[in-house]
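Researcher: Quick one. two chains, 754 residues in total.
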Amino acid sequence: METQLVLEKWAGAIYTLSIGANKEEGGSRGNTVKIGGESSLPLLFKEGNIPNLPAVAFEVWDTPPQDWDEGLVCAYGDVLHDPFAWADKCVREFKAKLLCVRMQGSHPDYGNKGPQEAAKFISTLLSKVNVPLIIIGCGDDAKDNLILPACSEAAKAERCLIGCAIQDNYKTLVASVLADGHNIIAESPIDINIAKQLNILISDMGLSLERIVINPTIGALGYGLEYAYSIMERARLAALSGDKTLASPFICFTGQEAWRTKEAKSGPDHGVIWEVITATSLIQSGADLLVMRHPKAAEKVLAYINTLFKK
Amino acid sequence: MALSGLDIYKLLPKTNCRQCGLATCLAFAMQLAKKTLAIEKCPFISAQARAALEEQALPPIKLITLGSGDAKLEIGNETVMFRHEEKFRNPTALGFIIEDNLSDIEIKKRLERINQLKFERVGQVLEVNLIAINKNTDAKRFLEATELVLKNTALPIMLMSSDLSALKQAAGASRGRKPLLYCATKDNFAQIAPIAKEFQLPLVVVAQDIDGLAFLSKELNALGVNELILDTGAKSVTDKIWDLTQLRRQALKKSNRALGYPSLAIVDKADFYEEAMEATAYISKYAGAVLIRGTEAWEVLAILTLRQNIYTDPQKPLQIEPKLYPVGGASEKSPVLVTTNFSLSYFTVLGEVEASKIPSYILSVDTEGMSVLTAWAAEKFNAESITKSLDKFGVQDVVKHRNLIIPGYVAVLSGDLEEQSGFKVIVGPKEAAGIPAFLKNLN
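Model:
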């Protein structure tokens, strides 16, 4: 007796995107990180290729975070006051293969650093660590339009991933990313139509779809995680069915969201498990890149990813 | 797969006799496909056609009841592969394995911990569902442990034993609580079936692959056992997800009756984090029941919260009744904070107001369950709707002052809102977490 398996056949695939450029590629990174490329639903290895493991980036700020929970502060210690030491600790001690730098210090309320200072920070960081970078603005649109082009230029040819472009503010960033050879994060507010629209707008400016990563704006476990979870599933199904305008890998800011929750702040293991489950649940719906905060959470998630992908 | 109107038409007499009240058999078939009329309306339907139509009316995944009385729980009856297609219906049962070779004191302690695993989140109570007793020693100890568990928990139980006489004894002793039996295999199904049948109990079927499961479920059906739960045994997380996905597809896409039952996944990890990651993976991907060992509250809360997220109806955001809620003995001098009637918004604000220990009112505006920014974008949370709520719930009469605190993200509403409501608007923090500090510095 043989039960005939129900197998899905997909016409499409997610674009493969490479973060970081090594010497041969004109950059100076010691490693590169590939994401995307899958032609199957998450973890269903028998129905297509899933060539790249979901990647984990450690979040680092250019200024000491003021409101981070004790659980996070304890995990890093003094280095939080020195961004370069912080980045170095992530790479050396926690074996980070990818860093996500948030230029929080440029925010008008958190230091208001200018473009020159931001650019200098990126240049110095690139000289101190040799892993690829994700560069995130401070969240103030006007300010980001000043500092992100400066950061982009300072990291020219290093093939960073820079964000976030949004529907009302993408042109400046797209122009910089195009000029300096980076990739871009397109952020949409838990909305598949806006995600698609923004991808089209960006590619219309000449930045190919292959260089876009979608930030679907996730909520943490217990805080609307299911909205992004389903948006990601829908987008992934559309992409695998052949819609190239949604065939971008997903980036999920799991650390940022998980550590905002009340649950995360209520005890030593609570925050770690909250971040861990937020991250692994989103892997299930298609996350390709997780930006994480707690080193123990990142360690647990990386080990889990390795078991999932063990052949 | 559901039959289409045309498929059904082929089974009808095609005489257009109008006895059903419709002009043609085709029209009747269309109504049957939409399930707006019952097959009984046709007096000339053949027995064969009736059987085919009744078969298709059965849920593709059988609803299985665990336990009895107040604590009973239903799993199965799922209809979609992805929650956005409609919704996931019956939340995965979360159970705990208890070894019978633990001492009585240890078993009681574990049960005490498990009985306390109850959490309230956004207006819902999150609970664990099942205790599985695993036989390690002899029949006598298994029975003792079972009785001890029965006495110390109201949760449904599951009996795990490959020694069928021990299983039968414990099943007999606990039959009133409708224990779930574990497990039928290719070697013992003919012997275990009579036990399940005699006591009318649901039975877990274990085989390494779905062919094995399909074979066993048919054999057990033939032996009169129809309440089944399927398990493909211990394997890697990835292989397990593949199996669970395949089982769901077999039931939904191929109407494979032999595999149309809920599934069980047992997690066997000593590390709490690994256990939670694996358990939540199975909850997301179709398991009807998941067994774990860890009983730490922080771990179980994370697992249950994920279950709550995945099983939330995507069409119906969790909402609360829009009204003016007093918190902590609020008086006519207490501050008034405005938020939406989306459960998550309201309960997050409530938690922070309670934490501030400052008596306050929370005005929950009817935004049809949308969150602050979504409702603002959809014009459900604006000067008009907030003013309407202020009037409707008589805020002017409840408090003596005329100050209103709005979420920081909708600061732009301030001008219009002041004009329309006559209240002085104070822009609050963007995140609820900032509320305690904000309230403390208010005066």
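The interface with chain B takes residues 1-6, 43-46, 189, 221-226, 229-230, 233-234, 237, 260, 262-263, 267, 269-270, 272-274, 276-277, 280-281, 284-285, 300-301, 303-304, 307-310 of chain A (CB under 8 Å).
Researcher: Thanks, that's what I needed.
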